[in-house]
Amino acid sequence: MKKIILLLALAFSAFLSHAQNAVTLKAGDAAPDFKLKNVDNKEVSFGTFKDAKGYIVVFTCNTCPYAIGYEKRIIDLDKKFKPQGYPVIAINPNDPEASTADTFAKMQDLAKDKKYPFPYLFDPGQKITDEYGAKRTPHIFIVSKTAKGNVVEYVGAIDNDPEGNNPQKIKYAEDVIASLKSGQKPAITQTKEIGCTVKRKAKA
Length: 204
Known about the structure:
InterPro entries: AhpC/TSA (IPR000866), PRX-like1 (IPR047262), Thioredoxin-like_sf (IPR036249), Thioredoxin_domain (IPR013766). By secondary structure, the chain is an alpha+beta fold. It is 31% helix and 19% strand.
């Protein structure tokens, strides 16, 4: 019995270690490119958006109440800023075995139902999730396209109003893009992400 408990404890420890190993990118870091399957079955990367000046990369999902609460705000970000050169690219970081409502088929259903105007990408094995160090849903990374490559400018929350009822909210994402468009560095480059933890399957 003690041996079984010890094995379970070791397995759980290994799982937690894996879940916490990825270091979250920060402002100034290179933003890793990717080629992930969109809900329309086409692959999407940064290069898909030839005329982009930057990107709003959002790790979000079908299931988290925070992600659901921010859904319209994410849609609104894309509608406002894609014409200005900053499209939203959404990535689902949850493992579909650990979160069965986050399968690719259910991502397709949600995107169709909500008429997502942006790509909603599946991340098999959570590779890109780990490269960015995304911890929660939603977790946002605003990226600039520069002569030296894609660079992270801001990491954290979309705003400081997860309940969606504060008209005086600080719109972090919008403020960052406004700064970038004016040729300035953002005054705030990192905030605490607000949301549910990324769901991972237990390691054998």
